[in-house]
Amino acid sequence: MSVGPLHPLAFAILASLATLAAPARADDDPAPPPTARELDKVTVVGEAEASRSSGATRLDLSLRETPQSVSVIDRATLEAFGLTNANQALELATGIQVESVETDRAYYTARGFDITNFQRDGLGLPMPYGLQNGDIDTAIFERIEVLRGANGLMSSTGNPSATINFIRKRPTNELQANAALTVGSWNMVRVDADVAGAIANEGAVRGRAVVAVEQGDSYLDLYSNDKQVYYGILEADLGDATMLAVGASYQRNRPEGVLWGALPLFYGDGTPTDYDVSTSTATDWSHWDTDDMDAFVELQHDFGNEWQAKASFNYEETEELTELFYVYGTPDRETGLGLFSYPSAYDSVFRAHFADVYASGPLTLFGRKHDVVAGFNWARGNNVEHSQYSDDLGTPLPPLEQGYAHYPKPAWNAISAGSDFDYARESLYATVRWNLSDSVKLITGASRTHAETTGDSYGESNTSDDTKTTPFAGLVIDLAPNYSLYGSYGEIFNPQSELDVDHRLVGPLTGSNAEIGMKGEWRDGAVNATVAVFRTRQDNLAESAGFDLDTGTSYYQGIDAESRGIELDMAGRLTDRWRVAGGITHLRVEDDAGQDTRTYVPRDTFRLSTTYDLAQVEGLMLGASLRWQSAIHREAVAFDLLGNATPTRIEQDAYAVLGLMARYEFADRWSATLNLDNATDEKYLPSLYWEQGYYAAPRNVALTIAYRFQ
Question: Can you give the pTM of this predicted structure?
């Protein structure tokens, strides 16, 4: 293949790639194309693209054809509401709960259980310990797909809660570029740039480069962050039916004044604390540096006769370097005494390789054409952690109201501990979509997975070896051109690395999800709605049971639990000017005795985001977002200064968070977007996942000035 003169865009993309390293993967949901140049081609992301997903089966299906609950957070929503990180975006997703336990760590739940599977273009390993450390910036993603329920067919291991799939931006044939400057509360400044287009040979070589830089302070005392994001991708047509893509991304986070743990939520007499929203237990030397690098390569080939194959390889590496200050104990209501220090220096490196190869196409049997996917998935990962401590563990602290900014930075010369785990996973999977009639489709599939963990965790062996077949079945019945009934059942398992109080593995988790529902699709796929009734079960779920001060680690116990509920989700462009996305979730989570469990998960949630282009003022868009959840609580025990125990309940009342936005195109290609978050200045705790917590951001504002070059 000959390549003509390089477009200036090539230098921008090659410069981005040069700052990274290693090859790797890309998008797993292309429509079957006749030529390589049309494979995964993206021009303008619209409702047609946002209304399709392959995350459940590798089949390229519309949302109405997919027999599971799926939500899509598209690029338009991310930009309209200034959702620059994954936590902000997922807070608007139906049924998703972002458990912000610290400034730089979070858990996630859906249908009552933890979400452990974050993927990029359909590939990934479950997150170590189910935690996302650091920040995931949304600048490099075209959309975020949320598949609720068990995804054992494509994720192999994990929980039957949800899978979050981040779909990367892709090159375009036509030149398009934009840049934006955002300024906001607490000295926040952000710059974004995105350029894509043909580079050589009349579009046979295409590319895209994305850069985002952000820095600012916070409403929390001492906290600040400095973030940089770089992404580059090149696509090349290697003939009429083959396409090669290679790309990489790098994100650098440098937060200071970070929380490790959070505020005590009750006094020694069991009554609740009530601090200022800005209160923090951080010191002026605490920091949590993270460096995340992803690199990928993929090769696609169209064999003709509607058959194609795709091979993807991905490499991920996350490095963390921290110095942290944890505060434990229960303060006395009168004196504020009863809190103690627990500083630590912690560093870790997580590396993972993923590979996926599959073929898809039609198969004719019994006079009808059916759709087939068969593939192999391979993954290897390693997680190394090292914790160092000083000899001032347990130092009595003054009342929290005085702050710990100037607590002396210790010398990390006392005890040390750590872990070193290797992960291995191989899966064979196959899916068939049986076209039983023009209106009835049956999807059957299975994944045979071997998952192995070897290594040590803080002085204890951490070894597991499990092999399991996870089935999937789904039925979709078209009732009318715009309506379908569906039902599905899927299983999943997770080897689990959590340890019990005796420092032994809790053992593998097994889970399943069954749901039935109805889906609707209108305006040629521009509007999609789902109502689903589900039953999700987890057996031997590793639930936090305490904290061991001698080893500095949490310990867990295995519990069985089941959630049952109903979800309503809708998204799309109701008219040419009006866009709406949102949903309602109602659920119950019970243990095998029929008692409520995981009570920190809200039983009722409501999510809504909407924008409207005013006809009366050309170029003006107004919008609003609303997050509401019911009350949550967790049981705890308070200890006074004499060691007397008092049972208590930590509570967070029901609350709503309102966001407002306005965008005005004030000149050709120029726009200004104003976002007002938490407009009513609601004071609330975003999570009771732990017995500590901190307050969410109060009212804040951001203004973005953007320019589109094409």
Answer: 0.90
